[in-house]
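So, can you check?
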Amino acid sequence: MEQWPIYKLLDDRKNLIEEIDEYTFQRVLKLHSDDLDDVIAKTAYMERIRMKEEPWKVDPPQDHAFWRKISKKLFGKPDEILSEEEKKAKEEDLLRRIIHRYSEEIVGTFRIPTFQFARKFLTVLFNRLLNTAAGRNMKRIFGTKYKVYERLLTKGEVEKLRTLMTKGTVVMVPTHSSNLDSMLIGYALDTIVGVPSFSYGAGLNLYNTGYTAYFMNRLGAYRVDRRKKNAIYLETLKAMSNLSIQRGTNSLFFPGGTRSRSGALEDKLKMGLLGTVVEAQRTNYQKGKNEKIFIVPLILSYHFVLEAKYLIEQHLSYIGKEHYVRSKDEFYSLRKILKFGWTFFSQPSEITLSFGKPLDVMGNFVDDDGNSYDRFGKLVRLEEYFQSGGQVTEDLQREQEYTIMLAERLVERYHKENIVLTSHVVAYAAFNILKRLHPHLDLFGLLRLPPDEFVFPMDTMLDIVNQTKNLLISMNKERKIKLSNQIYFDAEDLLKDGVRNLGVYHIDKPLDYEDGNLMSQDFKLLFFYHNRLDNYKLNKKFNWSPIVEKTQIETVATA
């Protein structure tokens, strides 16, 4: 482990922080040389608002005192008169103080004993949960009949990932559904894929609980505080990502920025951290280093999401404004995670991790040797993208365009490498039937319908499930999507499998059988799981007649 890039990076934490401080200082000066005082003033103001409106236990000590001193020194005494040189020196001193405070907060540590303990603890915990829940027999608590990898399925370009980690630096860019994502990805990479630990960004909210904070602080994570939107903090965060990648540290971050509130696959990505990958590749070439950076999309697929109810309420609150009230997010607690683990292992359900085709920073596919090929299969020299007049040059505007291209390419790969589960199919079919049978209602009107008064007609449901299945199989043949093995079940078995998986965790079931009828106890949850396939627009190809006409008449008669 002493040879792992993450260990070498954080073993040199003091020098890394100094490098981040200087890099960020020069970057902010370059971008804000004419309005530095305004940038500092705005930062202090935004921080005071954060401390007042969203205080967290994990916030740095003496936060109020620090920002009070910054504001006081920035504006000075009423009768203080400074020359331009003195004013500039004071602003630069304040900038350095702020940057250093942020870099100390962001950069974590990597402790080998803690990592080894976490590895053993999670393996034992997962296996014991699995054997106890599955066997319901105390003799199996310490048994090895059931293995975690049977439920945590890794698919796709795993061998190529292992190979490329010996050729260059790998940046993993997963989709983001749950606070469990980081733990599951880290566990899978370590124990199933078998590669060294990655540097990864973890939301500061995960540090609010003692046990979680203890491990996160020592497992190589760097802290990301999404409450902080000011320019100085964002540049410091990007410097951490950029410099660690330049040092050859394999990194992981969620380019969507946060968990998908709607349940849909990401279709828009944040440019900040993604842009640091492009800049790091250019800087490597400028330094005469030919080591390439490889981008690996990773798509997580859950049958049920721990925080689904909270997330969809957040989404509806955002798009519906006054229609919904934001609820509290409590799903990073150890109790919630253990409850989820027990539920997951007690059912024949699985989570899939689909490792997509590796790309270079321009979105070109790469082979096992790291060579880049464009969409037409032509070999390309990556360094030429960064050259001007035969020399590698810095051009931030050009690199911004490259970042946009990379983001679009990743979104495309997310949708093509996505593995569809039966729960996604039945939720998508059911919610589209609900919409079709109430054409006069908008989304919020549908969600206000009383679920206990609506029965999904079985013949309609089976037909739309079968149509969805056939459309997905056609897309799979065209390599536009991936499917779990259960998608090939006949429509009736596919429906049963999807309904069973959707009903595993939630108290109010998105879909369930009641007295032989198929019903929903929560249309919002049904909408959430339906959204996983919504971007594919499969419903535009559904053949609704004559089944819908018959069903509409039956629905009206029942009402």
User: Anything to note?
Assistant: The longest strand covers residues 293-301. DSSP finds 20 helices and 16 strands in the chain. The two ends are 66 Å apart (CA to CA).
